[in-house]
Each structure stands twice: as structure tokens, then as C-alpha cells.
Amino acid sequence: MEVQNARRWAPRGKQAWLAVAAALAIASGVRLLLHPLIGPFMPGTAFCIAASLVEYYFGLAPALTVMLLGLGIADYLFVPPYATIDVFDREDVILLVSYPLVTLLVIVLLERLRRAQFRAELIASVAQSRYEMLLRHDNERMLARRAVDETHRLLRHLSHHHRTFILIQALERNALHQADDIKLQGTLPRLPNEIAPGPRFAEVHPEDIQRLSNALWPGGHRVRLRNGDGRSRLTECVCERFTTHAGDFLVLRIGT
């Protein structure tokens, strides 16, 4: 995978150049402290380390700046004759060859490693996003399959209990959750009364029809049904919930 933004891993702004100034100041200070002990030996080592650290945290341009400015400071302060630019001898040539060569090698390797690291992080982030998308699609597919299975179960239920079927009520998606909350508080829930009558609907007492249209939820119910002689008797009924792709439904039938 080609990642164009891998070259832009380093932070930008004033912070990088403040780090350049701080790295040069610290490297110069450390080298000045060590100068009485080591003299002109390895004059550019501190600046090479500073350039490498700046490269790791802030990128190529600030590191090259530290390298070039560090080369001038090291040649001026730590290569004899000190604090003069009139003399150009063998020590100056050694510094001008060895210091940039070693520092550039380290900087280039660090730059490649940082770009590879940033590229791997970008690819991992893209892979994580795609994985989450696949999970959402799988969840949606499972919900759709569950809704289809529930629809088939509803149809089988209606055909099997056709002779005991009283009514079916369509609900909003969150209606039953609201009903459960209200039941816990001790009051009767009021649900949307979109009711489709069944074969036994006409036998139900009108007061029970009114009560069921306002307070129907899954579970057992006692309903007054008229007999052939016109009298009413209490009958145990069962209400079941079905969640389909078209919505939620409550089906009330005579218990068997």
C-alpha cells in the first residue's frame, strides 16, 4: 500500500525550531564543559548526537539545520587554533569530512525508520476503521436476518393459532421499553392502539377491548369472551411480542 502522507510524520511549527536552538545550546554547553578534559578530540560528537535526537522527534529539516550549524560551531570553538577562521588545516578537513558523513548516515537511517513507523501506524489506523465498518455491517446483517426470522415465526404463529387469534397490535420501536418503565412505577402503560382484529375479536367484551387497546403488553391476560348463549366467561389469554423488519407487534390469542 502506497502511503503519501508517510513523509509528513514530523510535527511542524515553532516548536521544532525552538528545539533546534535548544539542542545547539545544550550541545555547545556540554562540549565546552568537556573541552578542558578531552581538548580537540572528537569536536563534533555532541552536535551529531543533538542532530540525531532532533531528527527522531522533529524530522529532517531541523536535524540538517542542527548538523550544519553544529559543524560551524565545532570548527570555530573546538578545532585548534580556537576561535579563529583564518587557518584551514588538516584538523578542519577531517572534521568537514567525518562529521557530516556520520551525521548524515544516522539522520537518513532515522528518517527512513520514522517514515516506516508512521506508515505502519497509518495502515493500522485504516485497517482498524475498515474492521469497525465490517463489524457494523455484520451487526446490521445479523439484525436483518433476525428480523426476517422473526417475521417468519410471526406468520407461522398466526397460521398455527388462527382459530384462537384475538388481535394484533402494531407498536413503535421503543413503545414496549416505555411500557416496562411505566409498569415498574405501578401505572398502566398506554401504547399506540393500531389494532388488527382476529377471528375471535368479536367475542371479546367491549370493556376488555378498550382495556387491551390501552394496556397490552407481553404476558398473560384474562379476557371475558362471550359463549354461544350470549354469556361471558373469563378466559386465560397469552400475549407475545414479535420484532420484525416492519416493526414490533403484539399478538393476543387464547391460551391453550
UniProtKB/TrEMBL annotation:
Topology term for the membrane: Multi-pass membrane protein
InterPro entries, sorted: KdpD_sf, KdpD_TM
Main location: membrane
Compartments, as annotated in UniProt: Membrane
Keyword set includes Phosphoprotein: yes
GO biological process: phosphorelay signal transduction system
Record protein name field: DUF4118 domain-containing protein
The entry's keywords: ATP-binding, Kinase, Membrane, Nucleotide-binding, Phosphoprotein, Transferase, Transmembrane, Transmembrane helix, Two-component regulatory system
Signal peptide residues on this chain, from the entry's feature table: none
Domain of life: Bacteria
One Gene Ontology cellular component: membrane
Domain Sensor protein KdpD transmembrane positions: 17-120
An example molecular function term from Gene Ontology annotations: ATP binding
